[in-house]
Amino acid sequence: MLIEKNMILTDVHANNELDLITVLAQQAFKTGCLEDVNEFVAAVLRREKEFSTAFGYGVAIPHGETDAVKSSFLGFCKPLQEILWGPEKTPVSMVFMIGVPKSQKSTLHLKILADLSRHLLDSEFRDKISKSKSSSDIYNLLSLIEKGIKIP
């Protein structure tokens, strides 16, 4: 399963994008999706250095390519306050982290990114996630992406 309830984090204390990336990577490690937190964080930061994953609309979608990923995951983090992301200092209030084993990167990573991005372009979907207070509500919304169901 790509989306697990324990990979949905809300009200996270963070000062910067590194804090959020690290918190999500540590959670992925705890759930058994990662073998090495530091290796994954380094891969994500390399990707961020190439081009910021700030998506706009208050969203960032960090991801990285590494063998440290044992099983694919989509994590979500909502910080207590907006974080300025990347060199442009884009305000971010929702972070979606993608982890895919290096062997599946070319196909699965792009599929997840495309499906997630398509949903995030929908202002109603973004608004529902942004206003959701509980991780269960956010999990239910994100599960719809995995099932391929469009939110009415």
Automatic annotation (TrEMBL):
Q: Which domain of life is it from?
A: Bacteria
- Mind naming one GO cellular-component term on file for this protein? membrane
Give the keywords, sorted. Answer: Phosphoprotein, Phosphotransferase system, Sugar transport, Transferase, Transport
Q: Name one GO biological process term.
A: phosphoenolpyruvate-dependent sugar phosphotransferase system
Key word Lipid metabolism present? no
One term of GO molecular function: protein-N(PI)-phosphohistidine-sugar phosphotransferase activity
Q: Which positions fall inside the PTS EIIA type-2 domain? A: 1-145
Q: What is this protein called?
A: PTS fructose transporter subunit IIA
